[in-house]
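Support request, priority: normal
Reporter: lab tech (M.K.)
Component: structure prediction queue

Hi team, I submitted a job for L-threonine aldolase from Acetobacter thailandicus yesterday, and the status page still shows it as pending. I've pasted the exact input below so you can check whether something in the sequence is tripping the parser. The sequence length should be 344 residues. Please let me know if I need to resubmit or if it's stuck on your end.
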Amino acid sequence: MAQQFASDNYAGACPEAWEAMQQANSGSLVAYGEDEWTARAAQAFRTLFDTQCEVFFVFNGTAANSLALASLCQSYNSVICASCAHVETDECGAPEFFSGGAKLLVARTDSAKLTPEDIRSLATCRSDIHYPRPRAVTITQPTETGEIYTPDEIRAISQTCRALGLRLHMDGSRFANACASLGCSPADITWKAGVDVLCFGGTKNGMMVGEAVVFFDPALADGFDYRCKQAGQLASKMRFLSAPWVHMLESGAWLRNGAHGNACAQKLADAIKALPGVDLLFPVQANGVFVRGSDILFEKLRARGWRFYTFIGGGARFMFAWDADPARVDELASDIALCSKDDL
Ligand SMILES: *Cc1c(COP(=O)(O)O)cnc(C)c1O
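Reply from support: The job had stalled in the queue. We restarted it manually and it finished. Here are the results:
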């Protein structure tokens, strides 16, 4: 199949992650995360974030988010999120399931970015015994629509959280893209801005599989290892979840991969933004481009072999991973130009 941009998960694994798998595949090592690779990976996160965080490695983002949120909540609590948050729309109720019933409180706005006002109004609309007690806020960085929270915006959100007694979780399934886009350090948009727990995506960043759950307040990590085990998320051969992180972080591949995806998204956006009949649904700030167009345009693109989803905002979504081929991005841009032209 020619390269497609329907999802960043269409990509294979990057050489750095693959190489680490190869290296980790030698000899006998202690199981269940007591091995050297896992210790090195956790240390690499502490170096990257410049703090003594607690790190856990799980298989996918749904597990990372759900278990992280579950660790912040009792079953009678609630979690504030945006209406298009992955936890709300794409996790099959896993956050509610793993927390034993904590309810997601969805902001009634179309924006993928939560504001301090959204949080305040949801957290304070009720305080009686009949309503689940708000305990956490989750933000996605970058958002599901490819937008970025600035460090100031995150700080404003975390200040609101602190004032209301809420913990702040960040779904960073594309966290590397956010760091590359902002050009700031990972610490600046996490613990230094008041984030308590980060789910750092490895899969969309170029690994075969795996996400890291990073607790900046070590007290919150208490019992998280048991939670992972109970949820079927404790890898017995943990080295294969942790070793790729060592190479990804130490070689800088994590950030290069993110920057490459972002640059390809920008390349497509620049090539199509002035076309008649074509609009960008959201500002292009990370590795995704959302194209608003007619049904006929989308049909024609599909007929030319392009795959894409339209489940967010009705636009065609194109996502660019570490392996996106700029020549293929050009092909997509010229097909969009061609199809939008005969559409007029
Ligand atoms: C891809 C993604 C995840 C992780 O999804 P899994 O398929 O469970 O690995 C989490 N959050 C967001 C915003 C995502 O795009």
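DSSP finds 13 helices and ten strands in the chain. The pocket of pyridoxal-5'-phosphate is lined by residues 60-62, 65, 86, 140, 144, 171, 173, 203-204 (CB under 6 Å). Let us know if anything else looks off. Ticket resolved.
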